[in-house]
Amino acid sequence: MILVVYALLSWMPGGYESGIGRFLAKICEPFLNLFRKLPLSFGPVDFSIMAAVLALNLGGRLIYQLLWSLAVRLLYGV
Length: 78
Description:
The protein contains three helices and two strands, in the order ααββα. The protein has about 80 residues and is mostly helical.
């Protein structure tokens, strides 16, 4: 959600220079820089935020599945 708000700030004039924009930049930029090293820019459009959101989604699902399988093994001894 924070990454989406950070991306939407690019549509607002001076959005990144506002207090909220600077705060979100401190949170989001270190993570987004991992994806900006990849060739995800096509012309003026940068898809690194979309890749970051997808990576967080997949990572969250993986962690959920691992924790669920661990809980099932502990509770039911399977």
